[in-house]
Amino acid sequence: DTGVSQDPRHKITKRGQNVTFRCDPISEHNRLYWYRQTLGQGPEFLTYFQNEAQLEKSRLLSDRFSAERPKGSFSTLEIQRTEQGDSAMYLCASSFKPGQGFDQPQHFGDGTRLSIL
Amino acid sequence: AQSVSQHNHHVILSEAASLELGCNYSYGGTVNLFWYVQYPGQHLQLLLKYFSGDPLVKGIKGFEAEFIKSKFSFNLRKPSVQWSDTAEYFCAVHSNFGNEKLTFGTGTRLTIIP
Question: A98 Cβ partners below 8 Å, 6+ apart?
Answer without folding.
Answer: B100
